[in-house]
Amino acid sequence: MCWQCDNPGRPQSEYLMMLRDGVADRGWLVQGVEGNGLYPPWAYTIGLSGFGLPELVVTGLPMRAAAELLNGMAGHSLHASPPEPGERIPLRGGPLIEVVPLAEPSVHLVFAVALFGAEIEALQLVHADECGRWPWSADFRDGQGGQPVLGVRHVR
């Protein structure tokens, strides 16, 4: 469930304060968004903007896998550099990912925008399926889809 669903009647400003405190303590947080029948789950970072870096997004992964991917890439971004649009990154023990810039981060990263402003930038970590196919391929997950791409590919 979401915070607002679990706390009806409490102001969203209370949740934003919790997020702000979490970002201050840890540098960034991962915000998960549960899927429903029409839309798969997705998650994004909140806090990388405070370091002048793009926030990171992943769609179509279970929450635990999404959080592990985002936390790993966020940590790498802080200590090295953020991934570049069009870059393909093989993950140890995981799928190949391709980096796609979000067309409209302010539409998708509601709480990051609330804390850092509508001018934030974001990158989606698009993952190949178990057969190495991408969501822009008709045979991705044997034609079952499940990973919306929130921007336009930047072919290198």
Task: Provide structural commentary.
With 156 residues, this protein is α+β, with helices and mostly antiparallel strands. The protein has one domain (3-143). 30% of the residues lie in helices and 19% in strands. The protein is built from five helices and six strands; from the N terminus they run ααβββαββααβ. The protein has a six-stranded mixed β-sheet with strand order 1-2-3-6-5-4, with helices on both faces. The longest helix has 17 residues, at 63-79.
Quick recap:
Helices cover 30% and strands 19% of the residues.
How does the SSE layout of this entry go?
Layout: H1 3-6, H2 12-26, E1 29-33, E2 42-46, E3 55-59, H3 63-79, E4 88-90, E5 96-101, H4 105-108, H5 110-116, E6 122-127
Q: Tell me the strand order in the biggest sheet.
A: 1-2-3-6-5-4
Mean pLDDT, all residues: 90
Percent of residues in helices comes to 25-40%
Task: Indicate the structural class.
Answer: alpha+beta
**Proportion in β-strands:** 15-25%
User: What is the end-to-end distance?
Assistant: 39 Å
Low-confidence parts: none
Which of globular, elongated, flat, extended, rod-shaped describes the shape? globular
Number of helices: 5
- Secondary-structure element pattern, one letter each: HHEEEHEEHHE
Please describe the biggest sheet, giving its number of strands, its sense, and whether it closes into a barrel.
Answer: 6 strands, mixed
Tally of discrete structural domains: 1
Query: What is Rg?
Result: 15 Å
Count of DSSP strands: 6
